[in-house]
Amino acid sequence: MTQIRPLYNQFAEYYDLLHVNKDYAGEVKELKKIIKRYKKSDGRELLDVACGTGRHIFYFKNYFSCMGIDFHESMLKVARKKMKDITFKQAEMELFSMRKRFDIITCLYGGISYTLSVRSLKDTLINFVHHLKPGGVIIIEPYFTDTQFKPNRPKLSTIEHKNIKIARLSLSRRKRNLASRKMIMTIVEKDKGVFSFEDERDVALFSTEQILTNMKRVGLKAIRIKNGITQEFDLYVGVKE
After folding, report:
1. Residue 83, Cα to own-chain centre: how many angstroms?
2. Closest to 107 (Cα-Cα) out of 128, 88, 136, 86
3. Whether residue 29 sits in one domain with residue 99
4. How do strand 164-175 and strand 155-161 relate by DSSP bridges?
5. Is 5 domain-assigned?
6. Of 228, 145, 224, nearest to 239 (Cα)?
7. 8 Å CB contact between 156 and 168
8. In what order do the strands lie in the sheet with 65-70?
9. What are the percentages of helix, strand and coil residues in the chain, rounded to 5?
10. Domain co-membership, 190 together with 225
């Protein structure tokens, strides 16, 4: 009988395998160029917000002094095992508070879209700016904007790796200004059997104007980089002047 487990109780240990084809090294290489172009501060302190299992930090740490925060402790547990020399803290992006200030704050791979409302987006950006040095840069990578999102498209992806096989099915629908995705993931693993995860979550569908306007309102010079570093999601850069 298939066992249904809560998503983040066990999902974290499979996260890196699910994204094995994502070019984190190449993305960081491009992000480094963007940082060099826009950053005016002299330091190299980087905070990655919604860092997950730390895949971007794994490459960022070759160039910057890094720290990561994420809401899910299970994801951070995986990150800490991989990088014992990096500090990872459990925190919400809208509410985290530190005395330290950073030269670079990143929030990648759709992390900012979990703010769910324009008000929450603005409050989160205010918090980012509060933790940013003058001349520092904020780089955010939302999921699809309201005009880019294409709902009701069934998706299936599979991963085959040694003693693990994974099938992931998902369908996203639009709920006003949100994209609501339902996902079922089934795993067959040697010595563990067959088990499944179910997940249903919402992410915000911000417009380009909403993002740029709110970045400017919190005191940032805002730049949109169309198609970003993945040729899929736009990238937004904010410079604290």
Report:
1. 18
2. 128
3. yes
4. antiparallel
5. no
6. 224
7. yes
8. 87-90, 65-70, 45-49, 102-107, 132-140, 235-240, 220-225
9. 30, 35, 35
10. no
Q: Give this prediction's pTM.
A: 0.95
Same domain as 104, residue 129: yes
- The CA dihedral of 195, 200, 206, 208, to the nearest 10 degrees, is 30
Write the CATH number for 16.
Answer: 3.40.50.150
Token digits for 18? 């699910």
Which ranges of 44-154 does DSSP label H, i.e. alpha helix? 55-60, 73-82, 118-130
Angle in degrees, 0-180, between the axes of helices 208-217 and 118-130, rounded to the nearest 10: 40
Tokens 């998503």, located at residue: 7
Same domain? 186 vs 226? no
> In the chain, what percentage of residues exceed pLDDT 70?
96
Q: Does residue 217 sit in the same domain as residue 194?
A: no
Residue 124 belongs to domain spanning:
11-145+205-240
| pLDDT one-digit tens code per residue, 156-170 | 999 998 899 999 999
Cα(186)–Cα(111) distance, rounded to whole angstroms?
A: 24
